[in-house]
Amino acid sequence: MSNQNKNWKTKLHEIIYEADTPAGKLFDVVLLIVILASIILVMLESVKGIDTQYHDILNISEWVITILFTIEYFARIITVKKPLKYITSFYGIIDLLSTIPKYISLSFGGVHALAALRALRLLRVFRILKLARYLGASNNLLKALKASRAKISVFLFAVIIISIILGTIMYMIEGEENGFNNIPKSVYWCIVTLTTVGYGDIAPQTPLGQLIASMVMILGYGIIAVPTGIVSAEYTMQRKEEKDNETENIQLNSQSCANCLSENHKDNAQFCHECGHKLHL
């Protein structure tokens, strides 16, 4: 009986967590369709005319989808060796947040609109379609951003200091009579101008103020280019490293470890690369 129970959980785990098997692909595709349907229902429910005419149908449909998500959530918990690992994981939290709004709406009206959080579950499409192995460029971009975070942080700090200095100067030049009522508001104007957004709610009126504003606008284009250059340099390095590793020809699959939920194992791998637990082959 114990072996039968183990086999049952193993098969369910493969269907829910993996996308390399026909059953797993079908489950994930159906899941995506249901998620899209639930998002559309929430959007339609926010339109008063549609909600008034089809409220009962929309409400029943929402409950059906919520119940399906509830079953899926608990199925994910019982098929892993460490349920808390899944519950506290990114996808576990998203799955929970996308399930509970409808139940909360029984006591607090309007909260069910938070079901739009289900859109975040569409992130599973990257695993379902096995795009991880084809999105090397995206992975390199993320690595480049992480490698550049120190330089970008220093750069942003410098921009903040420039905004404070120029905002203070504009406050002294323009004054309250021209809309620069205080230093924080002047700093806000500087940031809006520096980023080339230009809402137009505050504008300098004096010739000197307009000259400084012109300089800030020109400076804004240079400031936009700096972080782009930093990330581009790191991205180029990541691409070089990727090409150096292409000769290894390592292929990854969507095999999920039932113990720690790690994915992207090498093809034909027998044990998890994170915890060493035996994989389901």
Top keywords for this entry?
281 residues; mainly alpha; Four Helix Bundle (Hemerythrin (Met), subunit A); Helix Hairpins; 2 domains; 2 strands; flat
Describe the structure.
The chain is 65% helix and 1% strand. With 281 residues, it is mostly helical. It folds into two domains: 2-130, Four Helix Bundle (Hemerythrin (Met), subunit A), CATH 1.20.120; 136-253, Helix Hairpins (Orthogonal Bundle), CATH 1.10.287.70. Helix 1 packs across helix 3 (48-78), helix 8 packs across helix 9 and helix 8 runs antiparallel to helix 10. The protein starts with a helix and ends in a 15-residue tail after the last strand.
List the helices and strands and how they pair.
Elements (H helix, E strand, L loop, with lengths): L1 H16 L4 H24 L2 H31 L4 H5 L2 H8 L3 H4 L20 H4 L7 H39 L8 H12 L12 H39 L6 E2 L11 E2 L15
Antiparallel strand pairs: 1-2
* Strand line-up of the largest beta sheet: 1-2
CATH topology category name of the largest domain: Four Helix Bundle (Hemerythrin (Met), subunit A)
Terminal-residue CA separation? 22 Å
Total domains, how many?
Answer: 2
Low-confidence stretches: none
Question: How does the major sheet shape up?
Answer: 2 strands, antiparallel
Q: What's the CATH architecture of the largest domain?
A: Up-down Bundle
Give the helix/strand class: mainly alpha
Summarize the helix and strand pattern as letters.
HHHHHHHHHHEE
